[in-house]
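Appendix B. Raw example, untouched.
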Amino acid sequence: MLNKFKTALTSATALTIIAVSAPAAAFCGFYVAKADTNLFNESSKVVLVRDGDRTVITMANDYQGDPTEFAMVIPVPTVITKNQVHISKTSLLDHIDAYTAPRLVEYFDNDPCAPTIRIERMQAFGSVSSAPVMQKSMEDSAAELGVTIEESFSVGEYDILILSALESDGLQTWLTQNDYRIPDGAGKVLTSYIKQDMKFFVAKVNLEEKAAIGGEMLRPIAVAYESPKFMLPIRLGTVNSKGSQDLFVYALTKNGRVETTNYRTQKIPSGQELPVYIKDEFDEFYPDMYAESVRKEDGSGVFMEYAWDMGWCDPCAADPLSSAQLRELGVFWLDDNGNGKQSPIGRRIMPQQGQNVYVTRLHVRYDAESFPEDLKFQETGNRENFQGRYVIRHAYTGEMECDAAAEYMTRVNKRQEAEIKTLANLTGWETSYIRSKIKESGKGVPFTEADTKPDEGWWNKLWPEKE
């Protein structure tokens, strides 16, 4: 269905503020790592902008082979015309991926014998060519096979056709004859789409335009249309697939979260405290944690990894998208100044607080058996914020000279034992493996049993006769 992609990491500058005060319960720690889509192979990403019956869908791909071999076939609910297609920027999808990615944050314990120190880190804030000449023979051959070429045009480096068909065999034959690559055995799936009166958006690379534009990557394609159907076709991508595929959906709406209606939507596990060594191995932890979550749902779960008002974040894995970037993705309800209806105000307000754009990130690992239907969505009024967020806590290991020190050290040891069990439950890893990794990292339990016991007879070392 959708082509695979690779995303580039983005980084953000930060400002650190240190102050002596009472504990800051609202602060969510330092952001130190994120689980963006480059951790997953065989994956695709799609941005869905939706309000009422209006949808703008932006599809990224990572095709890097011979451009003559590239072809895309995507079912769409209505006929698409040239002015409804736009060539977008890969950087926009990279940005929204980084902004919504599950993240790791860290805390540093304060000296239990000293005034509380609060440490906060605040993140800083197409070309269109003329339509190709359509050969009469192509139209004739299409008609003979029960295929109608509804629209034909070029946008950027893509030559695009919009097709309708009477039956799947004719459509499959015509696509194959014209070098549009579709999976073997796709006829059953195509028949289902034809019965739903779906059309087919097909694209090839326009070699002359691609040479003029330059660059190795093909740019994302954005399509706007009106339809009561709020869905994403995935079944063509499962035909003869060698295994499961990961799909990341970034839904931008006015009112609140987007959820699937024909599959269970659930939150990814979040908020757990993990051993400190995970800071250096987050890219191993998150894929295994996600795989274990999928296993526990028998492979058919749709996982929410992020749901938040776009105007702010806490902590920020990347800056929120600007008004200009959101408009480029098709957020059509923003006015010329980038403002929408006022959104709720919370901590870490960013300059775009008036945009009234809510983003939901959904992650699906699908195959033909676990996902026999396309994804169907609904926008809800739920604006509760959620993020996949994992915590590491560094123990204080400096000098501690007070009655609370022994109690603190005992508490840290118990906490770190609980972190090991939590990590094992999330990932399916053996606790023996986790302990070996902790030992290897040198970031294990910092306090011995002797450390945690008050030395009430410490003076005996000086005056043994006073025993």
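End of appendix B.
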